[in-house]
Structures are given as structure tokens and as C-alpha cells.
Amino acid sequence: MIKKGMRRQIVLHYIFVVFVALLLVEVIFLLAIRTYYYDSVYSKITLHIGMAEDFQKYEISGDHSPNQLQKLLDFFQMDYTELQVLTLDGNMLISSTGFQPDRTITTSDVPEAVGGSFGRWVGRQPGTNESVMAVSKMVHINGRETYVIRYITSMERIDSDLLNLTLVSIGIGVAVMSIVVLFSFGLANSIVKPLKNITAVSAQMAKGKFTTRIKGDYKHEIGDLASTLNYMADEIIRSNQIKDDFISSISHELRTPLTSIKGWSETLISGGYDPEETKLGMGIISKESDRLIGLVEEILDFSKLQQNEMKLSMGRVDIKVLLQETILNIWAKAEKKRIHLLLECDETFYIKADANRLKQVFLNLVDNAVKFSPEDSSIVLSAHCLSGSELAVVVRDSGIGISEVHLGRVRDRFFQVDALNGGTGLGLAISQQIVELHGGKLEMDSELGKGTQVTVILPMTEEQTVTASQEDKLL
After folding, report:
1. Whole-number Å distance between alpha carbons of 8 and 5
2. pLDDT band (50, 70, 90) for residue 196
């Protein structure tokens, strides 16, 4: 007995399907053979009747004399059959066997013959219980007398041959089913064994052993499943590493401002400092507090995005004004490195968006550009229309650039190209998700040592696009 499980289900279903198919084929085959043999007998008798009718030359009187009926028997006689001559009522007048000339035939073939067609009946012969076929036909003699001639032939030999053929078919079916059972076990094992291996490895992964891998060259869907689980384990290891790096990084980011705040707080509490030193200490405390608030807000924003809890306050936004505000916010930081912020946007574009969230995106992009650009360089912000249906906002710098290895991962959460520059590694991940919430996309092109270009593509309808000249006309 097969144990319950997938192997049992596969074997039983496979056997059931093949058994039903084989049963249908054998039944249809045997019925076709039986029909062929029975129809062959019926056709042979009807052909003989037709030929006898075409060549009859006898005149038979209407008194049903034995001599005349005997001539009719002799004319229509057929080998290996019993011939009976009946009245239209089914009363037997004469039989080629000479038995029971006075009995009445009540089988269905006689009424069919009286109706004008060939009558056919298959059943058991009364008295002998022999399987027979009866074929009847109404004949006219010289246009005056009408009789029913009835042929009866034994079907025992045909039935015996059909029985032997049925037994042979059953034997072949049993042999086929035996082979199918063997093949079904092989098929089940080819599926179940890899799955058992995958299940065992998955159980190890569930216990935290992510270095375990599914080994084996599996094909088709099972191979895809094994590859997916191995990939999942790799991603979990990578995510855990990124998480550890993030915890280490954020711990450092938090410790630095907290150390400054604590140090200056204790210093100021001790007293004895002039107003200038006190003012300097309070300024550092305020600056580091703002830095802490920024870090916490960045983490909270990422948490909201991950849980789909961030709500957008949509409204009509002037992209040119938004970019100008972004430049003003970053100007002081850029000025320290003598970096020039340039805006290339001659037209006025209006889109439906959350102004604060989009500004957060552009601030992050420009801040990154300033952070990784050399002194006395330029950062260009531009906006232009793409085929009338999309708006592209581009932030282009000539900084250190990003290598091809890091370019594909730079938007991953917690990932940092250079951990020494600080930050949580969440800025680009948050920016990309905010852009996607607006129905847009964020694209990056970069070449190491030559700079980076980040393009934010946002959807825009004709009603939302208004040029400066069109705006003047409306006013």
C-alpha cells in the first residue's frame, strides 16, 4: 500500500486516467467489432434476398399448396440458415427444417418486414436458448400473393469469437496497466524526490540556515522552484548584511549628534562661559538636533512607504517654482563647496502632484549631487516635455559618478556607495517610491569619474501643461 502523499496521488490519478482511457478504447473497439460481424451477417442475408427476388420465375397459386411453398423454399434457400415462409400475420406456413409449421412468429422483425423494409431481430431462440439473428422480408409473387420470408442463423460461433477477442483485449489491457503502474511509480519518483529534497532544504532555511542550497540539476518548474529558493536565500543573506550595515551606520549617525548635544549641554550646565561661547554651543545643539530630526523623519517616511501608509496631498504644482525653491534650500550647502546650481527651464509646467513630497525628492537628488561633486563644479536642473504626455525633470552633475557594479543597487534600501559620507542609505529608495506613487519613474545614468544624471519622469496631460505665454493669455 502506498503511503499518503504526492506520490500516491500521482500514481492513483495516472492509473485512473489511463484505465478510463483504456476502458473506453476497448469498449468502443469491441462494440465496433461486434457491430461489424453482425452487420456482415445481416448484409449477406439481405444481398441474397435481393438477388433471389431479381431472378424469381415461378408462379405460385393462392392456395398455399405444399408443392408451391416448397418451390419457394428451394428458390430462397441459403446455406447455414433456417428459412421460414410466413403469412403477413406471422403464421408459419413452412420451414426448411420441417418443424412447427403451425406456430406464430411474434418477434419484431416480422412487423418491420410487413411495413416494407428489412426486419432484423437478435435474441435467444425459444426452446434451445441459442443466440440467433432473424432477418425478414416481404416478397410478392407474380404481383398477386404476398409472403414473408424469414431467415434464422446462429450467432453462437460469432459470439464465441467475440468472447475470445474480449478476453484477449482484457489480457492486453491488464498488461498495459501493469506497464503503466511501473511507469507511474517512476514518474512519481521523478517529481517527489526533488520536491522532498527541496522541502528538506527549505526547512533548513526556515530555521535560519540561509547558507544551505538546493543542489541538483532539476528541469522545468521544479528547476525554477529550486532556483527561486536559492535566489531567495541569497537575497535574505544580502538583506541581512544590508540591515547589519544599516544598523552600524545609523548607530554612528545617531551617536555623532548625540555626543555633540550631550557634550555641549554638560559644558553649558557647568556655567562660567561668556555669551559668545554660549551662543556657539546652543547653535551646535540646535544644528545637531535638526540633523537627528532629519534622520528620524527619513526612517519614518521609509516605514510608511513600506506599509503603504503614506498619503499624498495632490494639487496643482508649478514645477519651475518647485525647482527654484529646491535650489534656494540647497544654495548655502553648495556655496561652501563653490558649486554653481543652474536652472534650465524656460517654460512653466503644471502637474497634479504632492508639492512637499516632490520637493523632498528633488532636495535629495540635488543634495546627493552636491555631496559627490568636486569644488568649483556645476549642477544643472532642467525640465522639458516628453512627447506631450510626460514631463522629465533632470538633475545632472559632473561629480565622481557611480560604477556599473553599484548603479544597479544604488536605489536599494540601506545601500550606500560610500559609507564614509554618512546617511542612512534610504534617500534614493524613498525618492523612487514617492515618484512611483505619482505614477512616474526614476532613471539613473552615470559614468565613473564623469558624473551622474538622474531623470524623474512624471505623467502630464495636455490640460496640466501650460506654457508661460498660454498662462498670460488666460490671465
Report:
1. 5
2. confident
